[in-house]
Amino acid sequence: MAERVHVSRANAYARINRLVEDGVIRGFGARVDHERAGQGASAYITLKIVQNSWRTVREQLQALPGATHIALVSGDFDVLLLVHTPDNRALRELVLTRIQAIPEVLSTRTLLVFEETDLGPRPDRPAELA
């Protein structure tokens, strides 16, 4: 990283360490190829939920297998959920038997993902250090 942003290793280390200590960087992780990991079906699921039930719904969605991103949003629906499942049958079961069974979920809409592009760190978009 130091080379990419043209600073010394010691300087990069100090800056990253400061960002971790300040809570700006909350952790480090791996970028997963979901298809190669046996999770070939992906979908965004929109949910309309009972007003003021976000915390309860969030806890239940976090427990779902394959849930990778949950967001409370504004607009025509309340929650946007990204899931990865082994196949469409598993996706169907997840939506119909797990998500729609949550009492505070009023309705769902499933958007199948045909192709994904990971926009992680790229050479044309160098990471900036604070």
UniProtKB/TrEMBL annotation:
GO BP term, example: response to amino acid
Taxonomic superkingdom: Bacteria
GO annotations of cellular component type: cytosol
GO terms for MF: sequence-specific DNA binding
Keywords attached to this entry: DNA-binding, Transcription, Transcription regulation
Domain named HTH asnC-type: residues: 1-40
Pfam families the UniProt entry points to: AsnC_trans_reg, HTH_24
Protein name (record): AsnC-family transcriptional regulator
Species in which this protein is naturally found: Streptomyces griseus subsp. griseus (strain JCM 4626 / CBS 651.72 / NBRC 13350 / KCC S-0626 / ISP 5235)
Gene assigned in the entry: bkdR
